[in-house]
């Protein structure tokens, strides 16, 4: 809507004051009218009265187009405008933008037609001598070209041409970014430029938002989050404090962070949304109910299940008070059941789920979700037979929904596979994950899930001894997850670690050491050097160097493992004992290599004595071993 107003603002002054536009030096052949055969004689001069009449006709057509509202009227007015204007007229380019934005927003035309209008506009604007690409371009020229690029990017996105969309939108952002006011005083001064008071921030917001959509579709979730954060910053500068739309923006960004499991970043944003909606709409508004439900999801991700259940119950209470029924309330009840399962209240969860199952149709997607959650409760109660029966029912329903909702079904299959793992049905779990991966690969917007699923398949194949099958899945998962979540995401570290374990199994310790080193590097950043999984990665790296015969490096990393477990205190006694034992073994090998004629070299007395004292519990106050 903001962009359509922007097009009108830019169009209006140009329609009032037409400026002669020279013919482009290198016209776009796609935009030229059909070739005609003209006489070689020069045309006779046009009488002044005829020129004035033509200008009057053009002005009338311009006014008619500007006044047109509905799709039918706009199309008719645009056709008339085309007939009376030169094909290279900048005013025609702006009319293309306005019509394209209307058709896109109303869904009244195929995206390919919108793209054609955008490209036509681009061809005119870029061929103009003082176009936005030149150093003498005005702000309004830059904004006009930026809006045309945005329209082209948006239409390309709708046509699933994501890389084309990314190119158009990146160019658009490059044009509008220098025009953004950096402060309130700059914003005031910005209104005095040649754009006649036009505020470029809504255009920048629209470009950023569409960039986030494109990058999400390409699986580049971390970059998409940066664009969404920039969108929020722009909205905060545009909207008045307490705006309902601003509250929705906080919640949207919180939901985006939740999608990538960054619940710490999501929590304060969702709390801001809740605070804003409560102050402007009241504590019992539907928006507050949405905020509380998302808070429940975030608290669940943070494993703060009591707070999650409290927020969920408050959300349901508000929805019921407003008479909100249907799928939204049912999903909230299923969420509540899952939280109860996490709290160990499986019987209460089953009661909730049975109540929900009575309210849904037999073959509905929600009924499948009910049986998945029911299976989760039964699996936690170690009722394997009942768990499998529930999962079979869920799979039968989901299979019928594969064509209608492939993204939701693929995600559900992933959850079902994890429950089959719980009851040791690994082949079934792997089969469902492969089925899910095949579906996700056909959904452009689901690229961020492909890496997770491929990693899960690789891990299960590794777990079941099918190492050679596991390696390609893990190698593929690493690349996909780096593209989606960034190279330092903790999930990437886990896949590196599993890939290293696979390489060790097939006798490639050098490749394994490289993977373990990468895993440790990622986990040092994302989890911290003293996290148990980071220590395990360091242990794996020491093992790999040990297998390679690089004992000096193996001892160095094994020493780090010992010190790290020592920092965990008495709770890590068993881990520390094992780490010391492995250090001793590596040291024996190292000394044996130095003196092959005397392979049975005893360890130095201080280490043996210290280990014995530690086993007696006498070293709890110390912080490191003496080597």
From TrEMBL:
Keywords (A to Z) from UniProt: TPR repeat
Annotated organism of origin: Oryza nivara
TPR repeats: 247-280, 410-443
Pfam families linked: TPR_10, TPR_12
Keyword Metal-binding included in the entry's annotation: no
Keyword Ribonucleoprotein in record: no
Classification via PANTHER family: KINESIN LIGHT CHAIN-RELATED
Name under which the protein is recorded: MalT-like TPR region domain-containing protein
InterPro entries: TPR-like_helical_dom_sf, TPR_rpt
Classification of source organism: Eukaryota, Viridiplantae, Streptophyta, Embryophyta, Tracheophyta
PROSITE patterns: TPR
């Amino acid at each position: 809507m903001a962009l359509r107003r922007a097009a009108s603002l830019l169009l209006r002054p140009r329609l009032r004051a037409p400026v002669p536009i020279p013919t482009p030096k290198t016209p776009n052949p796609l935009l030229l009218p059909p070739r005609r055969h003209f006489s070689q004689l020069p045309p006779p001069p046009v009488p002044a009265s005829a020129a004035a009449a033509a200008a009057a006709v053009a002005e009338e057509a311009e006014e008619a187009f500007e006044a047109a509202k509905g799709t039918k009227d706009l199309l008719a007015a645009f056709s008339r405008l085309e007939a009376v204007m030169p094909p290279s007229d900048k005013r025609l380019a702006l009319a293309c933008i306005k019509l394209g934005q209307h058709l896109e927003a109303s869904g009244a035309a195929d995206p390919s037609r919108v793209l054609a209008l955008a490209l036509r506009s681009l061809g005119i604007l870029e061929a103009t001598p003082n176009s936005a690409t030149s150093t003498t371009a005005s702000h309004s020229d830059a904004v006009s070209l930026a809006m045309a690029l945005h329209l082209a990017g948006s239409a390309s996105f709708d046509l699933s041409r994501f890389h084309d969309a990314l190119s158009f939108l990146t160019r658009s952002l490059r044009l509008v970014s220098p025009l953004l006011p950096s402060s309130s005083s700059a914003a005031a001064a910005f209104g005095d430029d040649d754009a006649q008071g036009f505020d470029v921030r809504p255009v920048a917001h629209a470009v950023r938002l569409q960039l986030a959509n494109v990058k999400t579709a390409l699986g580049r979730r971390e970059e998409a989050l940066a664009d969404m954060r920039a969108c929020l910053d722009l909205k905060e500068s545009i909207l008045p404090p307490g705006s309902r739309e601003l509250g929705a923006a906080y919640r949207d960004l919180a939901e985006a962070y939740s999608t990538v499991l960054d619940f710490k970043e999501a929590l304060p944003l969702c709390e801001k949304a809740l605070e804003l909606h409560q102050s402007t709409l009241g504590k019992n508004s539907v928006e507050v109910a949405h905020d509380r439900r998302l808070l429940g999801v975030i608290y669940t991700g943070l494993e703060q299940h009591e707070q999650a259940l409290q927020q969920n119950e408050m959300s349901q209470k508000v929805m019921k008070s407003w008479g909100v029924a249907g799928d939204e309330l049912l999903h909230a009840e299923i969420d509540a059941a899952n939280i109860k399962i996490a709290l160990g209240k499986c019987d209460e969860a089953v009661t909730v789920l049975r109540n929900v199952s009575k309210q849904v149709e037999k073959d509905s997607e929600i009924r499948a979700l009910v049986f998945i959650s029911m299976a989760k409760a039964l699996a936690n109660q170690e009722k394997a037979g009942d768990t499998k029966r529930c999962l079979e029912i869920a799979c039968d329903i989901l299979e019928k929904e594969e064509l209608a909702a492939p993204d939701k079904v693929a995600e559900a299959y992933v959850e079902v596979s994890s429950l089959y793992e719980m009851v040791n049905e690994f082949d079934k779990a792997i089969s469902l994950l492969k089925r899910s991966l095949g579906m996700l690969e056909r959904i452009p917007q689901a690229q961020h899930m492909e890496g997770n699923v491929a990693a899960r398949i690789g891990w299960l194949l590794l777990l079941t001894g099918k190492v050679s099958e596991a390696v390609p899945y893990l190698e593929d998962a690493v690349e996909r997850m780096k593209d989606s979540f960034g190279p330092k995401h903790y999930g990437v570290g886990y896949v590196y670690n599993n890939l290293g374990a696979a390489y060790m199994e097939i006798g490639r310790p050098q490749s394994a050491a490289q993977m373990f080193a990468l895993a440790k590097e990622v986990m040092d950043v994302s989890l911290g050097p003293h996290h148990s999984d980071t220590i395990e990665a360091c242990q794996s790296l020491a093992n790999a160097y040990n297998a390679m015969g690089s004992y000096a490096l193996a001892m160095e990393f094994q020493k780090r493992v010992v010190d790290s477990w020592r920092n965990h205190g008495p709770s890590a006694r068993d881990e520390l004992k094992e780490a010391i034992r492995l250090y001793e073994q590596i040291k024996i090998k190292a000394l044996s290599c130095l003196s092959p004629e005397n392979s049975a070299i005893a360890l130095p007395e201080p280490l043996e004595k210290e280990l014995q004292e530690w086993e007696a519990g006498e070293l709890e106050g110390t912080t490191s071993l003496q080597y």
